[in-house]
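Hey, can you fold this one?
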Amino acid sequence: MGADAVGIAPAALPEGEPGGAAAYRDWVAAGMHATMGYMARRPERRDGAASWFPPAKSVVVLAFSYDPGPDGASDGGRISRYARSDDYHEVLRSRLDALLAAIRAAAPDVQGKAFVDTSAVLERLYGRYAGLGWIGKNTMLLSNRIGSYFFLAGLAIDKELPYDEPLPDHCGTCTRCLDACPTDAFPAPRVLDASRCIAYLTIEHRGPVPKALRPGVGDWAFGCDVCQDVCPWNRFSVRTSMFPPKIGARVPLERLASMSEAEFDASFETTPIERTGLQGLRRNALLAMGNSGEARWKGALEAAALDPDPTVAEQARWSLGRIGETA
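Sure. Predicted structure:
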């Protein structure tokens, strides 16, 4: 399978679990999902595996590292680790389909249903109960064996299996992730306000980035790894060959800011970066130019300030002003 960690959890998880279905509903009710309306649809589907696969008795949870290792680049828009390779969904789904086929070859009466992160599943909670890790203060599943740079996927099946034991919390008094967040996206440990998260702002958010949050975005062009980069447990991160990088850790800002639709498709069509769209990526690049405070971007920003796209033009004007402030 190529998984870096595997565990088994019961399909029915205890009620009232921190990070469980009730906590998820409270999080949505507080509006912390921002504009991601899909996260509020059919909340009952988050109650457990049986809500979307009624025969479920057990859930096999697998972790696949996506850490490409260190990259020495120091200039350009930063790209989150997970987004530097081709889109992972189909890769993981094919692995899970192969796992189910192998199980059914040995036990033909077994029925199962796979999930990646496009399904209404609280994957991290199942990962905890499968013994893969614990929910860290940055809301990520943390492992004392492989860190946190990994994808979660799973397979719900209609048979009871021996279950793994949940791991205890190993965060202790550490608050590095909370302290390092440039936009203060954690109102409390293990609570993420997506509307303030750099990953949300650079990927999911459409239109202008709120001005108060722009300085905190820094030089991120897509996603953010800050709260993981500072986590001590990522000294155990596993380097992967399953997701070979096709994009560097940084991409030249001028290239991103002036990119055409054809260039965008040719460069990013098969990667997670496709999700943000050309407008979002150009906006992010122009924002990073402004945050740099470097006068070398003045020409590119002046050109973008005349762009017919109002979001792009407004971001360019803001960034020109930002450069003027730091000159």
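The chain has a mean pLDDT of 93. Let me know if you want another pass with a different chain boundary.
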